[in-house]
Write a structure and sequence with these properties.
8-stranded parallel barrel, 6-stranded antiparallel β-sheet, 22 helices, 36 strands, 20% strand, elongated
Length: 909
Amino acid sequence: MTSLLSTEFSLSLSLYPNNHSHHFPSQNKPQSINFPTKIRLNITCTATNQPSQPQPQQQQHKHSKKSKKNETESDKGVNPVGFLTRLGISHKQFGQFLRERHKLMKDLKEVLSERNLMLKDIAYGFELMGLHRHPEHRVDYMEWAPGARYCALVGDFNGWSPAENCAREGHLGLDDYGYWFIILEDKLNEGEKPDELYFQQYNYVEDYDKGDNGASIEEIFQKANDEYWEPGEDEYMKNRFQVPAKLYEQWFGPNGPETEEELDAIPLEDAETRYKAWKEQHKDDPPSNLPPCDVIDQGKEYDIFNVISDPVWYEKIMAKKSPLPYWFETRRGKQAWLKKYTPAIPHGSKYRVYFNTPDGPIERIPAWATYVEPGGEGKQPFAIHWEPPLDCAYKWKNSRPKVPKSLRIYECHVGISGPEPKIASFSDFTEKVLPHVKKAGYNAIQLIGVIEHKDYFTVGYRVTNLYAVSSRYGTPDDFKRLVDEAHGLGLLVFLEIVHSYAAADEMVGLARFDGSNDCYFHTGKRGHHKYWGTRMFKYGDHEVLQYLLSNLNWWVVEYQIDGFQFHSLSSMIYTHNGFASFTGDLEEYCNQDIDSDALLYLILANELLHTLHPDIITIAEDSTFYPGLCEPTSQGGLGFDYYVNISASEMWSSFLKDVPDDEWSMTKIVSTLTGSRHYADKMLLYAENHNQSISGGQSFAEILFGEFNDQSPDSKESLHKGCALHKMIKMITFTIGGHAYLNFMGNEFAHPKRVEFPMPNNNFSYSLANRCWDLLQNEDVHRNSFSFDKDLMKLDEEQRVLSRSLPSIHHVNDSTMVISYIRGPLLFVFNFHPTNVYERYSVGVEEAGEYQIILNTDDKKYGGQGHIKEEQYLQRTISRRVDGLRNCLEVYLPSRTAQVYRLTRIMRI
């Protein structure tokens, strides 16, 4: 049995609000201050009205009723099948699946709450995990590796020694959940003496440095005694076990029992009798000599005695405010720390985590590392400790822009954003690309391939380190500057996040992280993507949930990211990774192929993100259009703000490659672009994104323009055709859909070349891994295309096209190949026919009046032929019912052109 002597008692001071409960304290959490003492008693100190005291049965019953009431109130307004009811969909099996999923979510939240004070605390794991500076002149390291037997941090700061900074199983370094904890003490500089308080804290906040204010610790404590405590109170609060210790000596004498075996030999009745006799003996003593507590025996096996506080005294103590000002006076500033200590692990140090496993020793990149050099070409990967001095750390300058009512998103890849055949940097992108995006009229950027990945040719989708920006582009501070400058230009910054799978690399990724095969990922076939060679997350595991949910919050808190596009949801939602045929039957979305844990994760991710950051934007990329993607989670949905209509770009690609343009179906174009009318307002559309032009694909401009020669008549005709279709495709895709539109970098000026990352089959060439920005200055075709795209964005900014209600599509004619629809005061007319010119084509309008052309794809400034003359730009309605509408316009429609008319004058009849 353990001795009752020589141990420590811990007093937790809540120095910060919003306590996030985790296994160990971090620099932003309540800190544990340890007071050594030589006495340990098997006595539990509680207060009569503290919640930790067992409640009477009647009180427990009332509490149970209250909990039940709160549970009912929290469920108010929640309908697991609400969106099915709203849409009038009756499907018994899917409805039952949604109800069961709702129950699973409630159970999951209950389980998570058991290990976290508040459910949202699971999104703050990054404040504890990995490396963190602790105010008590040390660095704390925490890692989850349940399969390991020994853990050490190795790096150039300790000569890569696995024995210097380590923790062993069974020696306080490993808890019951598989978390390892290592403390790296700062090194005392030569000639300096240790702090008077061994729990001395230092303030690292920017521009805050008291240094030593000249007052000693004793003087500060004396000041607290004089100004804060009443006589006797400070003694009890400084060491609240002093009173039980004195009582112990009174009962058993100076040579009382020292072990539990000796204590068991004394009858409880005898101890209680001794105590009562002692109390009777001192009943006439002054109140100041009696302790502010009482001792009773409740007959519990796990508690010999309970020390019960005097209620009056306890209320008086609890009414006091915490003596934080005195505690703050004991803290020193950063300069004082630098004078006395050398960092345990200096900024820029390379490090890895060392595990001893049943299969032998291994080294890994820490899972929560925030800056990683992934290695490659025979180089060993390692993490880099990023803790720059305050005078060098990046300081945010700009606040986040307000979320606009319509999103015009510019999708970018930093590495290929430069004009030269090399990997561009964050700084290059900030200086050269961001001003172009602003000039082009977009209001958001979406970054792909930013999160650390080992192989550049994977475009960034085989992520290895989810908390690190890719070091090939620059430092974490370089990325902060990129985001900050974007905000300064009024641009939101979205990140394409890959939580659907991860790289299978062991040396730099999470695969076999602790030597086992079931740490972060499923084992067996389920743990491997069927076709991509990647690993599949085990979403049902508490630690995996914390890792992924905290990762989302990390990018928002650390880098001020404004939103996420969740990549390839079909890979995670289905055990077949989405590689199956779908007929649209709801049974396909609730059968045995569904990963319910993945759905619960997505629901939890959206709930936490929108709770913690109300202005956050989440976008779902799912080729299967899982039912309820953008429905509120309270109504049975997954809670996304937008979903990507992937089929639109696939349709355009198919048309351009396989279907002659005189055989294009107008009906298919409209039905594909509008999608489901129930969710059209939540739809994000794009004509082409990066998928159409990366690794073996072709950009639309490459298909349409080809290798043209300005001197050849056939080449000129082909070029005019390609330019005309390119503008029409962009215009109808932009104006017919929901409130969000996306364009991939370079497509706004019809980039003529595909993207091809360096890989073995092209001899690792960078010749196609860049963007030809010089075409904007040197080529009329691309300059004109950019001018049109810019005016298209301006159309939305001035006329609020995307933010309006969905268009009323009243004219779709497959034989004439004409499409017309109305959106607000705007009339859109498209003539896709390759040869037919319509002199007076009738299209219906509701309002009688004058309509003015405000955008014309055939305008000469856009490289068009200018067939519509200036006097034809203004049209007056004819009172004739066409397309089911009361009035009509007879418009001139050249072949392969589109016009936007605006109602400028209303005529009342």
